[in-house]
Amino acid sequence: MIVSFDGLAEVRKKHRGQKIVLAAGSFDLTHAGHALFLERSKGLGDVLVVMVGSDAAIVRLKGPDRPILDERLRLTMIDFLKPVDYSFIDCYDGCKDRPDFIVFMMDEAFRVLKPDMLVVNNDRDDISWREELGRKHGVKIVVSPRINPTEYDDFSTTTIIEKIRDLARKEA
What we know:
By secondary structure, this protein is an alpha/beta fold. It has helices spanning 8-14, 32-42, 55-62, 71-80, 101-113, 127-137, 157-171; strands at 20-25, 47-52, 86-89, 117-121, 140-144. The chain contains seven helices and five strands, in the order H-E-H-E-H-H-E-H-E-H-E-H. Helix 2 links the parallel strand 1 and strand 2.
C-alpha cells in the first residue's frame, strides 16, 4: 500500500508489537535483484516498508541522466511486489531544497516510523551515516550481502542501461 510520509506514524500505530523492517533504494528499472533484496528484507520481520528515492535524491546520488523512470512509476512498481507491505517516496514538500535532505529524510523516517531495523546492501559506500542514525534512534542496521544467484546474469540497473546502450550503438 502506498502511503504518504505523513502516513508512516499510522503504519507504526497499526502494527504495534510487530517488527517493522525498513528498506530503501532508488529502484530504477526494477529487476530481479530488487525483488530478491526485498524478499530477504521481508524475511527479517513482520512488516516491510520501502522508502523509494525521490527523483531529486537519485539525481544527487547517480547524476543528471538518472533516474530513468520517475518516482511515481518506481513507487508503483515497488508497491506491486509481493514482499512489500507499504511504500513511500523519501521526500516531502520543501525537503528537496536542503543540502542534506537524503540524510535528513532517513532521520525523519526513523523518527516517524520507528522501524525496528533498516536493511541495506553491502555494496553501499554510505553505510556509516545510516549506522549513526540507527544508534541515535535505536534502529538496528542490517547489512545484507548482494546475492547474485548463478541462474541469473549479473544484474543491476546500471548493467541493464549499459546493455541497452550497447544495443543502440549496434543498431546505429
